[in-house]
Amino acid sequence: MLTTEALFVIVLVFSAITVLTFLAILVRHIVLVILRSLRLIRQRHFSSIIDKTLFERSVDKSFSIPPIELKNPIDAFILQNVISRRLFIVKGDLGHVLTRFAEHSGLVKKHVRKLKSRSKSHRRVSTNILGDMGSKTAVFPLIVSLRDPDEDVRAISAQSLGELKAESVIEFIASLFQDIDDSRCYKVADTLITFGEQAVPVLAKHVTHKERKVRYWTTRCISLIKPDDPDDDYNEVAGLLAERARVENCHRVKSVMSKVISNSHRKELLPAIMKLSMDDGPVVREKAAEALGQLKNEAAIDRLIEMFSDPVWEVNYAASRGLLEFESKGLDAVERALSGLQGMAKERSIEILIMKGRMVA
Amino acid sequence: MDRLTSIQVLILAYFIFINGTYTLFNIIAFFEAHRQMRRSLIEDPDFLYKSKLAPSISMIVPAYNEHRIIAESVESLLTCRYPKLMVIVINDGSDDDTLKVLIDKFKLKKVYRLIHEDIKTARVRGYYTSDAASNLYVLDKERGGKADALNAGINVTRSEYFFSIDADVIMEEDAILKIVRPILERPDEVIAAGGILRIANGCDIRRARVVHPGLDRYALPVLQVLEYSRALNMTRTALSALHSVVLLSGAFGVFRTDIAREVGGYSKGTVGEDMEILVRMHKYLRRKKRKYRVQFMTYPIAWTEAPSDFSNLARQRSRWQRGLAETLWQHKSMLFNPRYGHIGLFAMPFFLVVELIGPFVELFGYGYLIFLALTRYLEVEFLILFAILAILWGILLTFWSILLENVYFVRYIKWRDLLRLLIYGFFENLGYRQLTVLWRIRGFFSFIFRKTEWGRMERQGFKVRADAEV
Question: If B58 and its partner were Cys, which of A265, B159, B346, B433 is the partner (CB 3.0–4.6 Å)?
């Protein structure tokens, strides 16, 4: 068994580790306080230079970027924070001034160099920062990074290119859906959505792709690019998806198809959404019900009232909200149908009639 | 080996097992916190804020007699940065002016709404929408308890995910954007995600935001800061790295609505409903052989009011222990059952052996040491050294958690706060720890004898600076 002497040694060892930890906490805190003070001083310094220049620029078109000296690695970090915070608020010409600060101080060059670093962590951070800085000089290096061996770097490069509004590379960005993991696709998708209608023709090429993941993400992107006045490209892809709805076997893809079709406002595509509204997947039916309302083809009213009795309440809820899109015509139809309805369908009808003041609670 | 020696060996083995496990957890937590911190560097909350793919989230706020803090709390939640956010306050049959405060403050009006009782709850008396905040909804219902109120919220929400939020919780501005990241990455898999909960007592709070974290001037909240840091945040970070999270703070956890409905919502038969629902989700999804994840993250932060007196703290700890016992008992079939993977073979046994049985073994250990000292069965020097070792190990674990805080989640920047944490960390093991052991044992017995004690905490309300115009 354990002897007193052995226990004494163990206690000594633990005491030593505890004291060392105590000292480590104090040293860490000293470093933290020093860095924080240094950061505050340099932050004030950079902020005053940048804000002064921004002010001069706002009152006078002729201005020059004062030199900024980065004395140490912390300076680069602080300057980058000062610029990114302002870039979040300031846009347009003043935003360009901030970008020029990033270029003149060597910040952009530094991060472009880091894109070639062996550490994937450095490459990820630099790719992200280059997007924030808004410098067009970073576009080409970021295009190269779209082929980086690390999936995160590729996804962040797409995100940064989106921030830099590099429309010329939409094709490259869209192709990323094929070679990155599903969990990173949201970054690529969000980027493509920011390009708006410009991205639709490129995305349209992928909606019939053999991989479900690619079909889902491209269709979802198009569904979230909602044009006020859909152009030919959008209408074409809506038509293509209406055809495709008949053969598509993935619920995830079908759930986003109806939105694209309804966004196009092509009332003749109603049969495709009607078919989706009878799908065995509740999410597909729910989205189809919303789309039936959005398409505003009066031939959908009866189907929507039918959907009030759907056993899944999310679906019958979506149908009731879809019907409200038809305003008085929808409500008139509900009033006419009310006496023949039962159970959930009746309750839903009463709900919307009360909501719209056609019935008293 | 005689009987007394056998007991000594058992106690020694348990002592090494418990402290060794926590030491290992500390080490794992360092690595996990480092990994998550690096990950957070490439996450841009602004990008997530503008994302059109962000899932819709409801914050369900059960409120029972919360008139003092409800308006402030709802205001704080409404200012959270998130593009698709809905706040649903459930007035759970309050006897005070909670509903009136809400009606006046947010200009609520009663509307008719069909509510689907996917989960059975106490009768709903009214549904209100707000003229002042379009994303605020209030549900007034008869008293049914916290779980019942949360279930009513789950019934009424149309969002894909929901937070169960206590009325006294203050979220950091970007907390939701940060917590939603794993959901955006794997919407089909992530069924729950949680962040770190910190203690708001003593913090400088302005406009329902913690602007300067600080420590309370009283000892009890400071001791709880250490406990949260060590037992909750450190342990949970390690369990997350081991894919074994079975508990997300009830006050700060996000769950997938459809799964919560599928499993029947929160259980009304337990006081630890936050742990119970997550364990039930694990059980349900493992049985269905569905792929899923539960994520705990170290960088989304929310602040909560901690009990500042002994009676409230004792009740809270007792309730936590009772909740743990109830959950383990209800799901005992999962224990050591390979069908439930990590959860059945590691997470649940950990909570059983370390968290549930631990207080009894610890109390027995104290008594046994005294017995050995009095009977002179072992040398007094040996016993003193052993007691010192036990205390030192406890202090070391606390110091490591303070170091982890200081490296990865710096919040307490003042020297005074740090020194107080270190001093309290040193003395915590002399008295406070033993008290918590007694409270936890009391909690276990209240489970055994089915003593109904809801342990409601009297809230003081947050200390808000008068010069709130910042």
Answer: B159
- Tell me how far CA of residue B30 lies from CA of A23, A332, B392, in angstroms: 18, 64, 20
Segment (H or E) for B108: strand B108-111
Q: Of the candidates B279, B287, B254, B318, which has an alpha carbon nearest to the alpha carbon of residue B455?
A: B318
Q: How confident is the model at residue A278 (pLDDT cuts 50, 70, 90)?
A: very high
Instruction: List helix spans (H) across chain A.
Output: 4-59, 73-89, 92-104, 107-114, 120-133, 139-145, 151-163, 170-179, 185-194, 200-204, 212-224, 232-244, 251-263, 270-276, 282-295, 301-307, 313-324, 327-337, 343-355
Nearest CA in chain B to A9: B385
Q: At the fourth CATH level, which superfamily is domain A73-172?
A: Leucine-rich Repeat Variant (1.25.10.10)
d(CA B23, CA B17): 10
Cβ atoms of residues A146 and A157 within 8 Å:
yes
Could B53 and A88 be called an inter-chain contact, meaning their C-beta atoms sit closer than 8 Å? Answer: no
| Any B CB within 8 A of A313 CB | yes
Cross-chain residue pair B112–A193, CB shorter than 8 Å: no
Give the distance, in angstroms, between the CA of residue B306 and the centroid of all CA atoms in the same chain. Answer: 12
| Residue of A22, A40, A81, A83 best to disrupt the B interface, most CBs of B under 10 A | A22
Average pLDDT of span A251-268: 89
Q: What is the DSSP string of A156-211?
A: HHHHHHHHTT-GGGHHHHHHHHHHS-GGGHHHHHHHHHHTGGGGHHHHHTTTT-SS
Q: How many CB pairs under 8 A join A and B?
A: 102
- For residue B452, pLDDT beyond 70: no
Domain A277-361 has CATH 3.40.50.720: no
Q: What is the pLDDT of residue B469?
A: 32
| pLDDT of B56 strictly over 80 | yes
B45 to chain A, closest Cα gap in Å:
11
Write out residues 19-58 of A within 8 Å (CB-CB) of B.
21-22, 24-25, 28-29, 32-33, 36
- For an interface test with B, give the residue of A12, A27, A29 to mutate (most B CBs within 10 A): A29
What does the alpha-carbon distance between residue B108 and residue B136 come to, in Å, rounded to a whole number?
9
Provide CB contacts within 8 A for B367, sequence distance 6+: none
- What pLDDT does residue A1 have? 62
Q: What is the mean pLDDT of chain B?
A: 88
A25-34: list long-range contacts, CB under 8 Å, 24+ apart: A25/B399, A25/B402, A25/B403, A25/B406, A25/B418, A25/B422, A28/B403, A28/B406, A28/B407, A29/B406, A29/B415, A29/B418, A32/B406, A32/B410, A32/B413, A33/B413, A33/B415
The yes-or-no verdict on residue A271 having pLDDT over 50 is yes
Distance in Å, alpha carbon of A32 to nearest chain B alpha carbon: 8
Among A29, A314, A347, whose Cβ lies nearest the Cβ of B406? Answer: A29
- Domain A73-172 and domain A277-361 have a common topology: yes
- 253-292 of B, contacting A, C-beta below 8 A: none
Residues in B closer than 8 angstroms to A313, CB to CB, are: 116, 118
Q: B18-355 architecture in CATH?
A: Alpha-Beta Complex (3.90)
Q: Is residue B127 classed as helix, strand or coil in its secondary structure?
A: strand
* Site from A25, A256, A309 to mutate, B interface, most B CB atoms within 10 angstroms: A25
**Interchain contact A12–B (C-beta under 8 A):** no
Interface of A with B in 281-310 (CB under 8 A): none
pLDDT digits (tens, 9 = 90+) for B284-328: 999 999 999 999 988 888 888 889 899 999 999 999 999 999 999
- Given B381, B403, B418, which is nearest A24 (Cβ)? B403
- Interval A97-108: pLDDT, tens: 888 888 888 889
Q: Is A74 on the interface with B (CB under 8 A)?
A: no
